Amino acid sequence: MTFMNKRAQLILLGFGILVLSVGLAVISIHPIARYQEWRCREQLKVLGYEVQVYQSDYAHLPRQLSDLSNRLNPILLTCPGSGHVPGSFTNADSWADYTFIDWPGILGTNVVPKDYPIAYDRFMSNHGNRGINVLTVFGFVRWDANAEWLRKYAEEHPEVKLRIPQ
């Protein structure tokens, strides 16, 4: 009888350790993803700040990310969730993890409504295909689940021809 109790105890202990290990693994993934989303959002806030400083210095919005080369570290143009390595600022718009919108080129003016997007995650995979971060012209960054807000914006403004992250 004692042997069966010991065996049952060992089986229960093994099962408990297995359940605890799986639970910890699942729980630990979530905070890492949330941290990467937060870091991405903070990097976009820095980008938004630099866009505003650029606009106050030159009296117009930057036309592309490379316009900000003397203001930003290239690492700020890579989303922490992507795992990408930054490239050179000379062609930043081709390798950056963020899509930057050239409002002066599209609208022909620097007067852009504050709720218009100016940069956003280029890839849904940056955040596990759950959504993207979107930076508006005045520096506000919003989490956009499944890029729904950006899709709606693109439908309302087809002249902008936004590339929707996949």
Written account of the structure:
The protein has helices spanning 2-58, 92-95, 103-107, 148-156; strands spanning 98-100, 117-121, 131-136, 141-145. The protein is of the alpha+beta class. The protein has one domain (2-160).
Spell out the key features of this protein.
alpha+beta, single chain, elongated, 166 residues, 45% helix
Distance between the termini: 61 Å
Outline the low-pLDDT stretches: none
The arrangement of helices and strands along the chain is HHEHEEEH
Q: What is the helical fraction, as a range of percent? A: 40-55%
Number of helices: 4
A few lines on this structure:
With 166 residues, the chain is an alpha+beta fold.
Layout of secondary structure:
Layout: H1 2-58, H2 92-95, E1 98-100, H3 103-107, E2 117-121, E3 131-136, E4 141-145, H4 148-156
Antiparallel strand pairs: 1-2, 2-3, 3-4
